[in-house]
Pyrroline-5-carboxylate reductase
Amino acid sequence: MINRIAFLGCGSMGEAILAGLLAGPLEPAAVVATVRRAERAEELALRHGVTAIANSEEAEANSFAVAGADVVVLGVKPAQIAPLCREIAGALGPETVVLSVAGAVTLEQIERELPAGQPVVRTMPNTPLMVGRGVVALSLGSSVSEAQAKLAHQVFAESGVVLQVPEEQLAAIGAISGSGPAYAFYLAEAMATAARDFGLDEQTARILANETVAGAGLMLAQDGADATALRKAVTSPKGTTEQAIAVFDAQGLPGIVLAGAQAAARRSEVITAELQNPSA
């Protein structure tokens, strides 16, 4: 059970995780968040009833936030993870779970900056967490116990589906589920453009595309849903949809999606290497 949790950096993703936690049994009094600006701290405090501190006004905000915490969520940009870990290392309890949502920063990179044996969990969340339909992949560091792994799962349990995977799979998962919402949004953009090319007005085109993609997503979210079966149910033999799918196949759409995902995964690996060797 989480009795105290600290969010170090609380942007849109961090706030989505926070809101999910507060939708469950966690009370606002159990949360401390640190952010850069006083305006953002006030916004979080008013919206969620949590304690929020601006680093610009309190130099020791991060150390104060992590003291006594069961879980610490690192929500800053990848390049800021190592300096932040060094800053809070002395204030962490030995059993505190340090949970990173920063893409491309490895467990080894984080563990290197923290006390020996500190439990570290690396995560790959996606933006549908904001509407309670996220997918989160967790990879556990070498010092994480079964009980501490359960705490990490609890952080995301109210916001979506939680999967535990080996760290070497995170780049691929990021390319599919991490970047994937952008692929769906891109499809909606393309559908809206096609609708306008048919002569439909801007508003009608946008509604048709957005609601169709959103509705299809809800169908996929049903228990036991299978994308292939759902597609075939809409694709009547010699019908209009079959013709559209045939063109997509002829144009190589599956290969295009694969190539895009591979490019995303390669970029993740490059960022990881750059963080390991910042002077290279």
Notes: Strands lie at 5-8, 31-35, 51-54, 71-74, 97-100, 120-124, 134-140, 160-164. The radius of gyration is 21 Å.
